[in-house]
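sry for the spam today, last one i promise. struct tokens for design, 70 residues
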């Protein structure tokens, strides 16, 4: 007799799939990664009033792209 193990969620090529096809787990996981990645930028770049919004967005994008999150 053979048994096929089942899991609640499965990660394949950077995306999570759940048993019922929900993408909520993937969204929550990626949001957490983005929050963690942006933490070092918050105090010096993202909350600095002397830096323009365009520059803030570019800094955040470059960090997220370099980490493979976008």
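last one done:
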């Amino acid at each position: 007799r053979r048994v096929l193990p089942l899991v609640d969620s499965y990660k394949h090529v950077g995306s999570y799939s759940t048993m019922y096809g929900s993408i909520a787990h993937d969204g929550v996981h990626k949001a957490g990664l983005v929050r963690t990645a942006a933490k070092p930028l918050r105090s010096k770049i993202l909350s600095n009033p002397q830096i323009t919004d365009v520059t803030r967005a570019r800094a955040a994008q470059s960090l997220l792209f370099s980490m493979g999150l976008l």
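The beta strands are 9-12, 15-18. ok im logging off now
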